[in-house]
Design goal:
By secondary structure, the protein is α+β, with helices and mostly antiparallel strands. It has five helices and six strands; from the N terminus they run H-H-E-E-H-H-H-E-E-E-E. The relative contact order is 0.17.
Length: 184
């Protein structure tokens, strides 16, 4: 497991923000990392996790992988009924519907999406079990069934790619706003 999130966040700050001279973007990056690591810790039941980050010119690629129960299975285990497909269950996370018993906010993935796609104008990919989500800059949101390709990943992959903005973004412009993908 990730262990102490604050230790991991400190390591990520040193490795990514200092190495690539991105300290002025600390608030947005650390917010995204914290949201995603908390999600993995609280929901995935994973025994293995991996974070990878790499710069390609002015672009930063970040990938988080866990071998947990998947997003759709987490909803099923929490007793959500009335959904016929895993795509419908994956859509719930983007609508901000939490699986926590207290029914508190469920905005980790929507916040991350909004910061990456709307703040940084980047790409966002989620693969969880046999379903996925993809948003590329300038294109509509796509939900897809990996069974059609004969693919399944036992866990969740979150991949983000974006150009480093010239100036820091104000994260409060992008948080606590669930997606409206009904138009896509």
């Amino acid at each position: 497991m990730f262990g102490d999130n604050y230790k991991i966040l400190n390591i990520l700050e040193k490795i990514i923000l200092e190495k690539y001279s991105l300290k002025e973007h600390k608030n947005s990056f650390m917010f995204v990392f914290d949201e995603l690591m908390c999600n993995i810790k609280e929901h995935s039941k994973s025994k293995f996790n991996c974070i990878q980050a790499q710069m390609y010119g002015d672009k930063l690629a970040i990938c988080l992988v866990d071998t947990g129960i998947t997003i759709p299975k987490n909803y099923v285990e929490q007793g959500l009924r009335g959904y016929e497909t895993n795509i419908e269950l994956l859509q719930l996370v983007f609508k901000g519907i939490s699986t926590k018993p207290e029914k508190e906010r469920g905005t980790g993935i929507p916040n991350t999406y909004n910061i990456i796609c709307n703040g940084f104008i980047g790409a966002f990919l989620v693969i969880s079990g046999d379903v996925g989500f993809l948003k590329l800059p300038g294109e509509d949101i796509q939900f897809f069934d990996l069974n059609e390709l004969g693919i399944r990943f036992d866990g969740t992959i979150i991949n983000m790619l974006f150009e480093i903005p010239r100036k820091p973004i104000e994260i409060y412009d992008y948080i606590n706003k669930p997606l409206d993908f009904s138009k896509s």
